[in-house]
Design brief:
400 residues, alpha/beta, five-stranded parallel beta sheet, 24% strand
Length: 400
Amino acid sequence: MSTQRKTHHIVVLGAGYAGMAAAVQLAARTGKRRDAVRVTVVNAGERFTERMRLHMTAADRPLGTMSIPEMLDGTGARFTRGWVTAVDAGARTVRIDDERVLPYDTLVYALGGVADTSAVPGADDYAYTLSSTQDAQLLADRLKALGEGGHGTVAVVGTGLTGIESAAEIAERYPHLDVVLLGGEEPGATMNDRAAAHVRAALDRLGVRVRGGVCVAKVLAGSVELEGGESIAADAVLWTGGTRVAPLAAAAGLEVDERGRIVTDRALRSVSHPEVYAVGDAAAIRQGYGVMHGTCQGGMPTGVHAALSIDRVLGGKQPKPFRFGYYHTPVSLGRGDAVVQFTRPDDSPRRICLVGAMAVRYKETVTASPWPTYGRMKKMPASGAFWPRGGRFTRIRGDK
């Protein structure tokens, strides 16, 4: 009498940079065991969102269409379209669109972050964000209408990388609009002097008014109010000041940090539910220099490493610790200018940077690389397993 082996169900929630890396790696590495392992990818839409290019979408720059089901075709992974509305960590199920339930044996939680508009009154009601392609398109429609009118003021809140790229892109695309960049720090504050000076010069050249050292206290229908009471008229407000994650993980009873990110062990497993792996913006991943922050350069390696860890566990082995060191900060300044700040593994700036045309080519190569990387990993999964480990910067006591 023969016994049928139970299929191990792996569900990947989210098909962003980290989720796609995990899904393609898992499908490629477990392909020979398709009767024993099934990989299902859940995402709200079929189109892959290039988060690094959403500021271009907002400026009405056309982008290519990348199909998630087409990328997964031939891998054996199944695609399910829908919104994740609940996770039951006890029952090991995921609820989709409040209608369907998917069981899992192993879960890869890759539901990334969105713009945090909750902390400032009016931001959620009146500010645009770059949380999704749809959100960016709403801003694009508004900017196009303002541009056709020939005048208007756009306030970009947040002087981090997204704010810098967005302000520059909008100012270049719509030179007749008045673009003001607002934030607590000066643009390029985390860069070396040469890179920061190039950022400021580029913003000046594009006509962006920079107000560093300010804090937005309220967003209104036609203005933003600063702490201290100063009001700045704005026909459109783009909010790039911070991110938050969905409350699904906390609601499921997973251990999360103060920002709602799943706290992981060194193998990227949830410390409270080891059958759950967390990657990308959804995870609080500690390295020797502290907790990683969300970027594509770190997100994709987390997805790959989670897949490696799961594959090792399925093969009866212990997973290895994840280590990652940052290596660059590329920032576009419109279509014809950019800065690339090279960094130490802890993300502090090195003396080396690229500016101008060379930086543009470098930035475009980086931005365009994820999709072809997934394609290579389908055939050669080992090709995606190379990234800077960070040396002493990422080492935690007990690491081998």
